[in-house]
Write a structure and sequence with these properties.
Elements: H1 2-12, H2 22-30, H3 32-42, H4 47-52, H5 55-65, E1 69-72, E2 76-80, H6 94-98, E3 105-110, E4 121-123, E5 137-139, E6 143-145, E7 155-157, E8 165-168, E9 173-174, E10 184-193, E11 205-207
Antiparallel strand pairs: 1-10, 1-11, 2-10, 3-8, 3-10, 4-7, 4-9, 5-6
Helix pairs in contact: 1-3
The chain binds 2-oxoglutaric acid.
């Protein structure tokens, strides 16, 4: 978060000190152009890769996949300001966007405690067993989701800073709206069994 704060202050010409404060969230909401500039630049330093290569995390992912594993180089850092819905990820399977192979695992990593009020992730347990689904409904302009999924049980996954949620590329999940006064920051790192196809849009792979 130190990297992020430095970048936000440099881009916005501010001297703010706490990226988790309501005043910082209001600043981000008022200056949307700062968010888009940060999105581009935050990917450049290696901290996202360093975080994704954390020994405990890699150990858990490798145990889950139970074979040699690689990291997809495109690692996403999300900035979800209070009540902002422009980047809301409606119910989807990552496979629809990430492609490559279905065994890819996503690690969803919050940068702060993330409760229902902060818009914690929602999941439909067991839905990965459905395999890839057509995302045949278009809502919120350009977002896609599968039809016929809403008779399933959905769970809200409240998390603590330091947790990571690992899930299969076919697990149905959704963003929650951030109803709190502070920004919700999160990282999404993705891992694939080595030797399996991955989509070039995910930036290639690196070994663990
Ligand atoms: O962080 C979020 O709100 C949703 C992220 C997500 O669904 C994803 O990365 O696939």
């Amino acid at each position: 978060m130190t990297n992020f704060l430095g970048l936000a202050n440099a881009v916005g010409g501010t001297d703010l000190s706490d990226p988790h404060s309501p005043s910082f969230a209001r600043h981000l909401n008022q200056c949307r152009n700062i968010q888009s500039q940060i999105y581009d630049e935050i990917r450049l330093p290696s901290w996202l890769e360093d975080l994704s290569l954390d020994g405990n995390l890699v150990g858990e992912v490798s145990a889950l996949l139970d074979r040699s594993t690689v990291l997809l180089k495109k690692i996403v850092f999300r900035i979800d300001a209070p009540l902002e819905t422009s980047q809301l990820a409606v119910w989807h399977q990552d496979y629809y966007y990430v492609r490559g192979n279905v065994d890819i695992v996503t690690a969803w990593i919050p940068m702060q405690d993330t409760s229902y009020a902060h818009g914690c992730l929602q999941v439909m347990p067991g839905s990965h067993q459905l395999g890839p689904l057509p995302h045949d409904v278009q809502i919120l302009d350009k977002r896609h989701m599968p039809s016929g999924i809403f008779d399933r049980v959905a769970r809200f996954v409240e998390m603590k800073k330091g947790d990571a949620l690992l899930f299969h590329s076919c697990l149905l999940h959704s963003s929650g709206v951030n109803f709190s006064e502070v920004t919700r920051y999160s990282v999404q790192a993705r891992y694939s069994p080595a030797g399996q196809p991955t989509d070039p849009a995910m930036g290639g792979t690196r070994s663990l």
